[in-house]
Amino acid sequence: MHVLFASAEADPYVKIGGLGDVAGSLPAALLEHYRTASPEVSLDIRLIIPYYGMLHKQGLEIKMIGEVHIPTISGDVKAAFHQVIGASVPTYLVSGDPIRSDDPVYCGDSAKEAEKFIFFSLAVLRLPEILDWRLDILHAQDWHTAVAVHQLKSQRQKNATIARTKSVLTIHNLPYMGTGSEPALKNYRVKPSADKTLPGWARQIPLPMGCAAADKVVAVSKGYAEEILTPAYSCNLHEFFLHKKDHLQGIVNGLNTTLWDPSTDVHIAHRFSLDKLVAKARNKIALQKELGLAENSEIPLVIFIGRLDQQKGIDIAVEALDRLGCHGFQTVLLGSGNATLEQACRDLQARFPTTARACITFNAAFSHRLYAAGDIILIPSRYEPCGLVQMIAMRYGCIPVARATGGLKDTINTTSFNRTGFLYKSLQSKSLENSLLKALSFYARPNDWKAIQERAMRVDFSWNRSAAAYAEIYNRLISTRIAGQSK
Ligand code: ADP
């Protein structure tokens, strides 16, 4: 089975957010799944990402394997393909003028982004001809590669090399759909979607175009797959998704459980595990010392880690913490992003200098120390397609107080004998406040708290189950193709 996994990011080459984690882990997890659970199928999965300027500086050993011309209304643009030597999952990089070497991965200019990612999407579809490789399944991620899915559908009838290729499109974050791509689509001669169930305004926007064309659409949790059928979360596409309901499935992301393991984590001072949970408290003391907070392992430490963006609801957390006066607990907020939200965090520290800290930076090593030290993590997201933060925190015995949305709802258990965290529904800060107070009341009962921690640390967040669910989709797509052929 030949699968091409197309993404704008993939760890360890390029990671900006959760998409990088997924594209960096899922192909390898699928290889492992087929090797162990379905050895009768030989999976040949390959990864393709843009050759960003930042990748030129990584000292990767690469080999140029060919080039194609991508037509535009003003002439052809050359796309070159490079193979990364020694990659465990075969990896290809695409270069060409629209992928400027001095631009960041995401530059924030929608016209430039559209030129770059539509060019990349069109190049993705040409890799099989360069490799003389039969493509069975194209697995695209988010809007950046959705146009490849759209073009695949429109070219399947005319092009023998892709005539039998099936497609999967995973939605990691629906609101980022590639709005403003119309001029770039015209430039690359990509026709609008002809799908009548898609509202007119969405027929020239990459993510909806890809969703309309894909043989299977996956959202990164069951909760999010249900939410995008509703007006509150669908970005006005709920009627379209309701039409496509049979093609839509939710599969929660897995976690890199080797990287996020408190028993082996090189970034933390005191490693710990289920049977050595007492060592977790030493990490709290170390962090309190590092940040100039009172050193006392009994004071509950309430943390936040995330992008400072409206989506993540940090403003709601600040409001709740403010009302509680950061009294009876300490709080550390780690994040960067929107300037107003960054200032709101700094202001909280200024108001409660003895108990609150705002760490306005992106610092991966520090995040490990914070997960290891924290008792409670606040995740007040307005929406959360999947979320990794809650899974990482639980592995480190740091208990989530989270809004019941998307992947948070799916991964946090609140039933009395299986509780792994605390969920609340409303966007009002009062609801978060009440949920935090409830968590603190459990914290005050050490045996109850330890039981929650142990359960949270035991949850299997590895990729195994999710890889099996994606494999089932691949298998089904291939078998429908075979069934279609025998008719
Ligand atoms: P999203 O992909 O929407 O940003 P996720 O919860 O899926 O949210 O993933 C966020 C990832 O980024 C987690 O691994 C989290 O630890 C990390 N992260 C977020 N903000 C920071 C920060 N300021 N410093 C270090 N790591 C961060």
Structural overview:
There is one protein chain. The model has no long low-confidence stretch (mean pLDDT 96). β1, α1 and β2 form a beta-alpha-beta unit. The protein has 18 helices and 15 strands. The longest helix is centred in the C-terminal third of the chain and has 23 residues. The strands form two sheets. A nine-stranded mixed beta sheet has the order 3-4-5-2-1-6-7-8-9, with helices on both faces. A six-stranded parallel beta sheet has the order 12-11-10-13-14-15, with helices on both faces. 39% of the residues lie in helices and 17% in strands. It has 487 residues and is α/β, with parallel strands linked by helices. The protein is globular. α1 crosses α18 and α5 packs across α7. The site of adenosine-5'-diphosphate (ADP) has 16 residues, from β11, α13 and α14.
Topology record:
Elements: E1 2-6, H1 18-37, E2 44-50, H2 53-56, E3 62-72, E4 75-84, E5 91-95, H3 110-124, H4 127-131, E6 137-141, H5 146-155, E7 166-171, H6 182-187, H7 206-213, E8 216-219, H8 222-227, H9 238-243, E9 248-250, H10 278-291, E10 301-305, H11 314-324, E11 330-335, H12 339-351, E12 356-360, H13 364-373, E13 376-379, H14 389-395, E14 399-403, H15 406-411, E15 422-424, H16 429-443, H17 446-458, H18 464-486
Parallel strand pairs: 1-2, 1-6, 2-5, 6-7, 7-8, 8-9, 10-11, 10-13, 11-12, 13-14, 14-15
Antiparallel strand pairs: 3-4, 4-5
Helix pairs in contact: 1-18, 3-5, 5-7, 10-13, 11-12, 11-16
The structure holds adenosine-5'-diphosphate.
